[in-house]
């Protein structure tokens, strides 16, 4: 991507940042940590439909919560671990879908 396009994309992303009001910010930070930790354990233990349903509900009811959890989860990942290795546990999900 050229530099001008990258700047336009970055500005567009900034304009869409769902910064909550100051009263909500503290609660969102608590939820961010709890939600990320909960998803880490639930993703392997619960029915995938339940997880997708939860995330979809957050997207509708509280989009900033979904964004915060996503950012927290991404921050927890080791960028040196290849995605194929980190997501190897999903191979059984893909086999079941076939």
Q: Could you walk me through the main structural features you see in this protein, from its secondary elements to its overall organization?
A:
With 98 residues, the protein is an all-alpha fold. Helix content is 78%, strand content 0%. The protein has 6 helices and no strands. It has helices spanning 3-15, 22-45, 48-61, 63-76, 83-86, 91-97. Helix 2 (22-45) packs across helix 4 (63-76) and helix 3 packs across helix 4. The longest helix has 24 residues, at 22-45. The protein is globular and about 40 Å long. The N and C termini lie far apart (36 Å). The mean pLDDT is 87.
Uncertain ranges: none
Shape: globular
Oligomeric organization of the protein chains = single chain
Report, as a whole number of angstroms, the end-to-end distance. Answer: 36 Å
Largest sheet: none
Structural class: mainly alpha
Q: How many separate helices?
A: 6
Return the average pLDDT rounded to an integer: 87
Q: What portion of residues is helical? A: over 70%
Number of strands: 0
Kindly estimate the percentage of residues that lie in beta strands according to DSSP. under 5%
Order of helices and strands: HHHHHH
What's the gyration radius in Å? 16 Å
């Amino acid at each position: 991507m050229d530099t001008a396009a990258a700047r336009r994309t970055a500005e567009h992303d900034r304009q869409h940042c769902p910064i909550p009001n100051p009263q909500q910010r503290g609660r969102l930070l608590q939820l961010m940590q709890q939600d990320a930790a909960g998803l880490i354990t639930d993703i392997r233990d619960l029915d995938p439909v339940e997880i997708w349903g939860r995330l979809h509900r957050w997207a509708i009811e509280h989009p900033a919560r979904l964004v915060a959890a996503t950012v927290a989860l991404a921050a927890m990942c080791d960028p040196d671990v290849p995605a194929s290795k980190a997501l190897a546990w999903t191979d059984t999900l893909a086999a079941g879908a076939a």
